[in-house]
Amino acid sequence: MTQETTALAHSTAVRVSTDGRSQSGDRVRSAARAAAGSVPVVRTGPTGITAATPLVMISSDGRTAFYGDPSPAAVRDLVDELESGTVPTADADAVVEHDPDTASLPVPERGSLSVGRRDVLGPCGWVAPLEPADWSFVSAEQTPDAAGAVGLLGRGRGDAATDELVAETWETAIGTDGDPVVVCNANEASDLPSGDDTLLSGAPMAVLDGMATVAEYVDADDAVVYVNESKTGLQTHLREAIDAAADILPVVPQLVAGPDEFRAGEPTAALEALEGADRIEPRLQPPAPAKRGLYGRPTVIHTPRTFAHVQRAVAQPDSVDADAADPGTRIVTVTGDVSGPATVELGSSASLGAVREAVEMDGSFKMACVGGVLGGISRTLDMAPTAQSLRAAGLGTDGIVELFDTDRCAVETVGRRARFASTENSGRCVPGREGTKQLAELLRDIYDGSFESDKIRELGRVMRQSSNCQTGAHAPRPVTTAIDEFEPEFRAHTDGHCPSGTCTEKL
After folding, report:
1. Looking at the domain assignment, is residue 323 inside a domain?
2. Distance from C-alpha of 250 to C-alpha of 434, rounded to nearest angstrom
3. Residues 275 and 357 in one domain
4. What DSSP state is assigned to residue 4?
5. How far apart are CA 250 and CA 144, in angstroms?
6. Please, how many CA atoms are within 13 Å of residue 39, restricted to the half-sphere of its CB?
7. Are residues 385 and 423 in the same domain?
8. Between 204-218 and 195-202, two packed helices, what is the crossing angle to 10 degrees?
9. What is the DSSP string of 41-107?
10. How far is CA 507 from CA 120, 318, 435, in A?
11. Is residue 40 part of a domain?
12. Which residues lie within the region annotated Disordered (predicted)?
């Protein structure tokens, strides 16, 4: 049984998009056995669409048939038909005609894969993730000037330049005395977001190339990829990717595992963890990491999403709209009361509401939490996915949309998030340590008949303005936005009535 390591070298091939689950491996083995070396069988990374994993793609000369989670026996039949010279299409979920040399997954006209765009996500599920031959590296030859020139913003909670110009961070690091270092912050303990993991699993070369490009620009000889210690499979995968690209990248990163704690994903807390601190907590700022970061060195710390966007902007500068307020695309994980999470990519002119087309909800839509566990609550997704639009709506920009059905209670939903913040904050500052506790208590009081809306809002204002950490600053957001949208529900609870019929006890 043989299995190819490169996907793009073959016009005829069987691709099996996997996420590491055992049944995914079964499909790969079935295809490889059936092909017996006559047809290349390539294991690719995840596409981002959980419901379509494992996904088998049968390609030949610019035509690809898609099969979502076929049985091993069905895979063998598909390979047999391909060996006979025909792309099997009779029972395919989709069939796409495309450029035979495309390096990006061909997009069907319908279904979850058709939602949004596949720019940064393009290689995911289509190329062999650990094969440098499937990737065009730019870091050894080009600088990230194009990414800086278009005004690319940092993406994700773990980015030290979240929703800010990344080029300014780079210039600060360049202008600061000391030896710069570049950090890719992929430590995310929450199980909600999957955009970074999708990129690291499906297109690790894009992230590593983006890191090396920035490292070359700021004249850094050292780089670090920081991941969760619990994600051992991802660690193994990344070590293989780093080893495979070591002879190509001008700067080869180290891989370091950190605590599986929510607070450890905050940028400066990540630096504390990398330095081996016993207590993981965010640092007081200023100075920013670009001035004083890892071991006191000027440090550029971005998420995998940011580095992948940098790489694409450098490799294909014409693909990024420099006139947009938020250039590039936004990678969004859609989860919540859905049959299976999905990670999609939206352009700045799209509607965030398009994410609902990528998943199937368990019930009727009631509300969404946008921006992670401490994101904002909204009845509508009728807005652009840009940082500016989301902030104007009081929502978060972390690239997560949780869809909730009508069985969800707004009070219970935000109460649990307030309690999460009260236990997960670092305790370093008073607003984060005490404010989150007071917030949780004020929400519990609702069940005892006391709803002090003005007091909750004033506490939220103080926490946003004075908290040192993101947890303290963002903890009020789910609560205040939910009150804006569902105040009658909050008042109903003071009378002992839950309109959703789900609250049976105090949080």
Report:
1. no
2. 47
3. no
4. B
5. 14
6. 28
7. no
8. 100
9. EEEE---SBGGG-SEEEEEETTEEEEEES--HHHHHHHHHHHHTT----TT-SEEEE--TT-SSPPP
10. 41, 51, 17
11. yes
12. 1-27
* Same structural domain, 302 and 342: no
CATH of the domain at 374: 3.10.20.600
Are 173 and 272 found together in one domain? yes
Q: Which residues contact 67 (CB under 8 A, 6 or more apart)?
A: 55, 56, 57, 58, 74, 75, 78, 91, 92, 93
Q: Which pair of structure tokens corresponds to residue 251?
A: 């700067």
Rounded-to-integer distance, Cα 346 and Cα 120, Å? 10
Three-class HEC string of 274-313? HCCCCCCCCCCCCCCCCCCCHHHCCEEEECHHHHHHHHHH
* Contact status, residue 334 vs residue 356, Cβ threshold 8 Å: yes
State residue 1's pLDDT score.
41
What is the rounded CA–CA span in Å between residue 153 and residue 121?
A: 17
Read off the amino acid at residue 17.
S
- Asked whether 477 and 376 are in contact (CB, 8 A), the reply is yes
Domain end residue (candidates: 253, 285, 317): 317
Question: Which residue, among 256, 255, 234, has the nearest Cα to 243 in the 3D structure?
Answer: 255
Task: Please check whether residues 373 and 467 belong to one and the same domain.
Answer: no
Asked whether residue 284 falls in the same domain as residue 164, the answer is yes
DSSP letters of 91-108? T-SEEEE--TT-SSPPPP
The pair phi, psi for residue 344, each rounded to 5°, is -125, 170
What pLDDT score was predicted for residue 356? Answer: 97
- Alpha-carbon distance of 355 to 334, in angstroms, equals 7
SS3 label, residue 368: strand
pTM over 0.70: yes
Instruction: Please identify every stretch of the chain with a pLDDT value under 50, giving residue numbers as ranges.
Output: 1, 22
Share the mean pLDDT of the chain.
92
Owning domain of residue 59? 12-112
The DSSP line for 5-36 is: S-STT-SEEEEEE--S-HHHHHHHHHHHHHHT
pLDDT at 22: 45
Query: Total structural domains in the chain?
Result: 4
CA proximity to 415, closest of 458, 476, 471, 460: 476
The reported pLDDT for the residue numbered 432 is: 82
The candidate with the shortest Cα–Cα distance to 328, out of 182, 129, 146, is 146
DSSP single-letter state for residue 256: E
Spatial separation of the C-alpha atoms in residues 122 and 106, rounded to whole Å: 8
**Same domain flag for 384 and 418:** no
DSSP 322-357: TTSSS-SEEEEEEEESBSS-EEEEEETTS-GGGGGG
